[in-house]
């Protein structure tokens, strides 16, 4: 994702996050990385938590956001996540709501994987907003924790 889609700013740094970026007006956010499994327990299920905050001027983040795993397109499975907790939750196991953290930030699970016995696990996700463009999402980072 190009630098033009994020506004790097001097937001308050929280705990171990080195860089903070605010998502500018876009309909799609892509997250790509290679996870170094040497730092994880082998053959363990993990959840990928997107750690974020919403700016005062956020837009397009009230509705569910569709998350698709681009590396496994054939199964055509997807998840819905919320950046704001919906008033009425009817999720049937296919939606993930944000949780507040002790450090004042929020987090939502965007992906799950097994660390296996490989050196790395590739991750490529597409988050698509159906309420038009989304803006005001302040991304602090991604955390991987056992499920």
UniProtKB/TrEMBL annotation:
Stored Pfam families: PP2 (PF14299)
Record-linked InterPro entries: PP2-like
Domain of life: Eukaryota
PANTHER family the record matches: F-BOX DOMAIN-CONTAINING PROTEIN, F-BOX PROTEIN PP2-B12-RELATED
Official protein name in the record: Phloem protein
């Amino acid at each position: 994702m190009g630098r033009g889609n994020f506004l790097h700013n001097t937001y308050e740094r929280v705990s171990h996050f080195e860089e903070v970026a605010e998502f500018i007006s876009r309909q799609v956010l892509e997250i790509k990385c290679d996870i170094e499994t040497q730092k994880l327990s082998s053959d363990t299920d993990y959840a990928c938590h997107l750690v974020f905050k919403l700016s005062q001027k956020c837009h397009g983040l009230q509705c569910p956001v569709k998350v698709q795993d681009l590396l496994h397109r054939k199964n055509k499975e997807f998840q819905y996540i919320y950046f704001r907790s919906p008033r009425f939750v009817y999720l049937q196991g296919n939606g993930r709501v944000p949780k507040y953290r002790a450090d004042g930030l929020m987090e939502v699970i965007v992906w799950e994987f097994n660390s296996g016995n490989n050196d790395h696990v590739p991750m490529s996700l597409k988050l698509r907003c159906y309420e038009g463009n989304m803006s005001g999402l302040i991304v602090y980072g991604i955390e991987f924790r056992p499920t």
